[in-house]
Write a structure and sequence with these properties.
The N and C termini lie far apart (about 50 Å). The chain has a 7-stranded parallel sheet, with helices on both faces. β10 and β11 form a beta hairpin. The chain has about 290 residues and is α/β, with parallel strands linked by helices. The longest helix has 18 residues. α3 crosses α13. The mean pLDDT is about 90.
């Protein structure tokens, strides 16, 4: 039946979906979400968190690669549909944002935008560094990019030294001028370990209730700041004043972090998966 309608092709090598089939799948996405209850879940979560918009991808991105890829596709589509000519777009690092860059389609018509890392580098994995992600996104969007070739954890004296470099100063100035931000929402413990903080500091953070990290700041589930780690890149004040912000995170283990970050500003779009969404509602109703 699908073959007769031109939606599926059957060959000796196997079956594959035609271009018309792909168009139909996209068109049925909202219908599928409504039948599965995702639309109602989104509305409940927007009301519970009191935020601008939430987009929920069916499934669990921690357990299923297809769900993770779909979350990357939805995020990249939201970016393309929202950015405008001459926008300066800040991108953070991490595996979630690396997936977004991987799923970003190559545009036929280039966009006149500037993509920049919103913070310095963390860890040693090149593919998940903000520099690499910003460059890949800029290439796929046909825009320009700048690099921030400094680690996230420079001390104040070292920062004053590197700021004398014209290229780094120019990148920092661009971060201060960005008007669109896309960032992965991090757990406090995960980010503390990635930064290789002292064991005593990590224990202190967790014992104090820290569940989320954003731009060097550690927060409890209510959005109260527990501790600030001096970093290079976007400040929390700039985060709160940036015109358009998209936060991305999936998996039930990210639920507390999403709640905490959502309390920092209400004019935000959160893209997550079904498992995180249900866990968030469970936590909110428990409290």
């Amino acid at each position: 039946m699908l073959k007769k309608q031109g939606l599926l092709e059957i060959e000796l090598s196997g079956m594959h979906i035609t271009e018309n089939g792909k168009i139909l799948i996209d068109a049925l996405y909202d219908v599928y979400n409504k039948l599965k209850g995702i639309i109602d879940l989104q509305k409940k979560l927007e009301d519970a968190l009191s935020i601008k918009k939430i987009i929920i991808v069916p499934g669990n991105s921690t357990e299923y690669e297809l769900t993770l890829k779909e979350m990357g596709k939805i995020t990249s589509s939201s970016i393309i549909n929202s950015i405008q000519s001459n926008d300066i777009v800040g991108i953070t690092g991490g595996s979630t944002m690396a997936n977004v860059a991987d799923q970003m389609p190559q545009l036929d018509k280039p966009l006149d935008v500037l993509i920049i890392p919103a913070r310095g580098g963390i860890g040693s994995d090149l593919e998940t560094q903000a520099n690499a992600i910003a460059a890949k996104m800029a290439h796929k969007l046909g825009g320009k990019y700048k690099l921030l070739n400094v680690p996230d954890s420079l001390g104040r004296e070292a920062l004053e030294m590197v700021m004398k470099n014209d290229e780094i100063k120019e990148s920092i100035d661009s971060i201060n001028d960005l008007n669109f931000l896309v960032f992965g929402i991090g757990r406090a413990d995960t980010m503390a370990y990635r930064r290789k903080l002292p064991k005593e500091r990590i224990e202190c953070l967790l014992n104090s209730g820290a569940v989320a990290e954003a731009f060097g700041h550690y927060f409890d589930i209510n959005g109260n700041e527990i501790w600030e780690y001096e970093t290079i890149g976007i400040s929390i004040e700039k985060y709160k004043s940036t015109k358009d912000v998209i936060g991305v995170a999936g998996g039930a283990e990210k639920a507390e972090a999403i709640i905490a970050v959502s309390s920092l500003r209400k004019d935000i779009t959160i893209i997550t998966d079904e498992s995180a969404a249900k866990k968030i509602l469970e936590l909110l109703y428990m409290n």
